Amino acid sequence: MEAAGARARAAARRRGRRLRAPATLKEQRDPQPGGRLPQRRIEEDQEEAVFREVVSFTPDPLPVRYYDKDTTKPISFYLSSLEELLAWTPNVEDGFNVALGPPECRQPPLSSRRPRTLMCHDMMGGYLDDKFIQGSAAQNPYSFYHWQYIDIFVYFSHHMVTIPPVGWTNAAHRHGVCVLGTFITEWKEGERLCEAFLAGDERSYQAVARQLVLIAQFFRFDGWLINIENSLSLAAVGNVPHFLRYLTTQLHQQVPRGLVLWYDSVVSSGQLTWQDELNEHNRVFFDSCDGFFTNYNWREEHLERMLGQAGERLADVYVGVDVFARGNVVGGRFHTDKSLELIRKHGFSVALFAPGWVYECLEKGDFFQNQDKFWSLLERYLPTHSICSLPFVTSFCLGMGTRRVCYGQEEAVGPWYHLSAQEIQPLFGEHRLEGDGRGWVKMHCCLEDAWNGGSSLLIRGLIPPEVGNVSVRLFSLQVPVPPKVFLSMVYKLEGPSAVGVALELTTGDAGSCHVGGISSLSETSSRRSPRPLRVPPTKLAKWVGRCGQQLSGGWVQRCYEVNLRGCLLQALFVNFSRPPGSQEEENFVCRLGEIQVVDANSLLTPLPQVQAVTVSQVRWQPAASEGESGPAGLWLSCTLHWAYLLPHVRCFRIHCCRGSGGDSPCRGLSEPEKPTLLGLAFVNRYRIVDLAVAPAEPGRDGHVEFLVEPIPKEGFLVPRAEWGRAAMLYSTPRT
């Protein structure tokens, strides 16, 4: 899938339609495949189920496809053969790999005729640190965060069926970007495989197509890039258009806004001959699916010829650009803009292949600077898309960090990487005042400090003496304004700067809505509560509880109420104004920790509770003793399942408390233990791996309690009484 004949590297990703709301209670209580029967439940009430376990060091093995063989951590996977593809059926173990939901609403929709931007992620064979569904401790991993510039994300690898790792699907969908997996055949083995399913009657290729649709539907990704890079017999190539039409039709029926794209490789005669354009030799494949991805060695005359071939479907032609600049290409690397200039001149979409070049080939220590440079050079050719739904909440977390922070409180120190935890990213870049003014504002992602997650948005700027303020657009929006909206901003200024910091909204027909004209919700100043909310419900009380206060770590939260009717929110800015009386040049450094835009009505709905938490697939291992005489400790691994309506949730935070005896260590009568954060989940299950617990004393049970904390989409912490709970009592075998 490289420049004319050179083959490349790799990666994978996926999405599917629905995984039975949350997993059904029956499913959660049934025995789990690959493990022993769930532990005997010895008591149960509405709050907590208790399971009993006898420690044993002979666990049943877990399926290697779904779990890392060394750690038993859940992993994303691919399928390597036609036999594996045809044999695949949804399994309870597949539940870890299911995306949280479909792509968020965005404008313009992908179906518009505006030229699109496709990013094809191919990196070192694929399934690297991104395969660990619950995250890893990777240092300096690859991260992509310029989502507002792209429309389609393809996870590419050289495995036959590349199912995108769920972290990529969750991150892309959060930004309204659709995700495609890759179906690829290559070399002599590819010829054999294609002959097996394409050269016969329709039943063979329809069976393959149905499986591809089922996989996309189940895992909640959005379709497939079809890449046949081997010669085909006349019988096989004759069935390719039928295969593409059947696959495309079935996908459209089962996956809303699903896409099937064809890569420029074989031609209608069955020969493997890259054309670098759409022409009469490959037009039949273009006519049979949603789009055509050209090879990379084109010139402007290829683009001119394609105008007649594409007709009204210019946006469905994705002109390939190899960022590594292999072969005879117009431009790649930091000259990729030369290629985009020509592509956009003729009105085509673009397919950027392997923009991870900035990570693979340049200094890792300069990755963020190089990535920002690469995308800033392309910015003028990359139209952005807008967010069009509420609530809109982001802490600017990249899904990685050197520590974990929860609302200003440090929870853990050490590197972490979890793609599903990436939050909505802004429009990065540098913005300068028009005219001769010297004012400027520049935004960077920053791992040095965070309010919630692992990073924050660092904004540097200068207010020249001749102007009173500078603004920078953070997000493009297309959101119909509900009757009442609450906004919140968490920020802090670095150093002695006294510049004013405020949110600014623009609307479709009411001009600008500045903070000065918006009612402020503050605990320390005269605050006007919304009239219908004389006694704020639980959600609103949690939401405004910190408003106007100085928070830990120097952070400040400001909250506002907006009342606008018949308007459309079009953009969200942050405005920096010079201090009163100042006539000097003002430099400033500001960190944004969180932005929230919430429909007030959503805060009136009751909070659902996490229910039916179960424990299964238990594995015990002995841990080395800390002392010569003391008993050796234990490492506990197990799987939690629970019931919760996923459309309500942003994520789940999984905690534990460890103790002994029958009393709950999290709710002890003396001093209850503070729960320890174990990790984040984005489905109704979580695999706990190698949790250190104390050995059970003779005649006395060990006790570990697990807590499942839901984080609502509005982005606040819920009371612990609404968390899900399950406890495990464990004992040593009787002798």
From TrEMBL:
Q: Which GO terms describe its cellular component?
A: cytosol
* Annotated compartments: Cytoplasm, Cytosol
Q: Which CDD domains does this one have?
A: GH85_ENGase
Recorded catalytic reaction(s): these are:
an N(4)-(oligosaccharide-(1->3)-[oligosaccharide-(1->6)]-beta-D-Man-(1->4)-beta-D-GlcNAc-(1->4)-alpha-D-GlcNAc)-L-asparaginyl-[protein] + H2O = an oligosaccharide-(1->3)-[oligosaccharide-(1->6)]-beta-D-Man-(1->4)-D-GlcNAc + N(4)-(N-acetyl-beta-D-glucosaminyl)-L-asparaginyl-[protein]
What InterPro entries has UniProt attached to this entry?
A: BRCT_dom, ENGase, ENGase_C, TIM_ENGase
Q: What is its EC number?
A: 3.2.1.96
- Would I find Zinc-finger among this entry's keywords? no
Q: Name one Pfam family in it.
A: Glyco_hydro_85
Compositional bias, Basic residues, is annotated for 10-20
User: What function does this protein fulfil?
Assistant: Endoglycosidase that releases N-glycans from glycoproteins by cleaving the beta-1,4-glycosidic bond in the N,N'-diacetylchitobiose core. Involved in the processing of free oligosaccharides in the cytosol.
What name goes with this protein? Cytosolic endo-beta-N-acetylglucosaminidase
Task: Report the source organism.
Answer: Phocoena sinus (Vaquita)
Q: Gene behind this chain?
A: ENGASE
